[in-house]
Each structure stands twice: as structure tokens, then as C-alpha cells.
Amino acid sequence: MHFRGINNIAVDAKGRMAMPARYRERLLEGCGGRLVVTVDRDHCLLVYPLPEWEVIESKLIELPSLNKQARLLQRLLIGHATELEMDAQGRILLPAMLRDFAGLKKKAVLIGQGKKLEIWDEETWSQSQEEWVTSVQSDDGELPAALEELSL
Amino acid sequence: MHFRGINNIAVDAKGRMAMPARYRERLLEGCGGRLVVTVDRDHCLLVYPLPEWEVIESKLIELPSLNKQARLLQRLLIGHATELEMDAQGRILLPAMLRDFAGLKKKAVLIGQGKKLEIWDEETWSQSQEEWVTSVQSDDGELPAALEELSL
DNA sequence: CCACAATTCCCCACTTTTTCCCACATATTC
DNA sequence: GAATATGTGGGAAAAAGTGGGGAATTGTGG
Known about the structure:
homodimer, DNA-binding, 42% helix, Chemotaxis protein chec, two-stranded antiparallel ribbon
């Protein structure tokens, strides 16, 4: 019951993007099509089903307010969080401000990431992708313990 | 209940490939023909029976979201993981994006690797294979502990 | 409070992709 | 060599993706 996989999507002139059909039924059942979009440090957008988001939001709010990193995270994530719904065609309208943040142009990419979805500008995604493929295998020195033990 | 051995397979114009007959019955019994394909850093594709994949996926999701290496792995593996089923002829349709990633052309190679299968472009495979035969025996200096104790 | 502008929403129509099915070719087995 | 199983290709129906017009709503300024 997790999001996974990659989809090419088009963002039209009005800032709408069609949710892939395979996700729609699940989104309607799971949360009545109510979603929350916010931003990520890596300059992509995050899409959560509303109930999932609320869990994350309360975790964020609980963070110590005197910690600078925590405040930054709160402003970034909670500050940009926008609730929106799918229209009758299964599309969502991304607010202009969030589109700008992620540098979204016409072509975008939607990535399933477990509890959430990520939206990337296509160009940004493919560039980052190449870097990752090489960087993941190169610096094996700094891997956290959990990663070292991972068996695929 | 492990996959092993190597098969030459053809990828047709629509991106379909026939699963070797000896695997089909097992795949239907084990997971109702439900498979997950994702990518590997070595530019090949990995095919898991759905239940096997879900184990790996949950491990990945549990990794700390603030760790950069973890995020890269998540985006690479979960981000490309696509669920698919065999059709009536025992074929699977590989998404265009994954075919591109692995550089798949008409001729490919399917390799049993225990819990999973690997799909390689034939040319890439034969090239890599030669390199490995030489490189595996050369760098015995940096083996992790588990490898040092391995008795073949 | 009204008028105007901008944005959002809803609907329709078109294009592209995916899916399903059938048919044939090739290989294996008896 | 016939019969079964496997591999391969392609066509057509269905579904999904895409774009745009116009109504409705919101917001702004006079």
C-alpha cells in the first residue's frame, strides 16, 4: 500500500497535472482525494495524502523551537504546505508559487516514494539521477550502519 | 525456490519480453504473477516477486529521511520500482523509462540471482562480464568482513 | 457596494498510450 | 514427422493523458 515507480507527466499552461490512473482509486478511497503539497530541500515537491501529512506535521510541530535547523524545516515544510483536491479528470492544480520553487516547466516527473510522491522538473530529475548513480556507488566510506546491512 | 541460470531473451518493439517457461509456474504460484521491476546502479534491471520486493521496500522506507545516501537509494530503487503482471502469453511489459535506463535494445539477457532476476542488455552484459572476471581476482585487499569469511 | 480582473473550476473533445486478444513462427517432445 | 509447448508479432478496442473554452468564484481597487 505504498507509492512506487516513476511517471512522466505534463504540466499544462494552467499549472495542472494529471495524477496517474493507477493512483487515483487509492487516493479517493484513502483520503477522498484530499492531498497536501509542499516543498523539499532538494527543490522538488512532495505530495502526501492528507492523513499522512497530518502525522508528519505534528512531528514537525513537536520539534524543539529553539533549534535553528528545526525552525528552518518547519518554515519550509509547514509554511509551503497547501491542501488541494483532484478534479473530475483526476488532475491537481499546483499553485504557481510551488511550481516556481521546483522550477517546473512543461515536462515533469512523478516519483513514488512510499508514503509520499515527489514531483520533479524533468530536466532537474535526469541531471540529479546521473549524479546519484555514480555517487551512490563511489563513496562507500560514509554509509550509516543501516545501509551497510541492507541486502537487496 | 531460487532463481538461477541465464537466458537469452528478445525484447519486442512494444517493450515486452517473454518470461522463460520454467519460471512461469513458480511465479504464478508464488505471487500470482505479480512482479516488481526496478533499476540497479550497474544499469541493469532487477525483477522481484512482489512479496520479496515489499520486504526490501519497507527496509528502505525505514531509513532516516535526513540522510543523503539513504534518500538517493530510495529515489533510485523505490522511485523506479514498477509493479507489473505477466500477460496471457507469460510476457511482461517493461516501461519505456526502465528500458532506457538499462539501455535495452532487442537482445537482452535474463539472469537468475537468488531472490531476484536481473535483466541486462546483451551487449552491456558481455562487456561487463569480461571486466569482472579479471577485476574480482585482482583487488582482494578491501573485502568487507562478511566476504572474508565466505567459503565457496 | 459595485465593477473589473484574475484565477479556479467544470466540462467537452481530441490524441496518445496501454491493454487485450488473436494468429503465426519456432522450438521440443514423443 | 506430427503434436504440443513456447516464443514472437501486430491489430483493434479501451483507457488514460492532454488541451482549451467558458462559467463560476475569488480578490482587488475604486
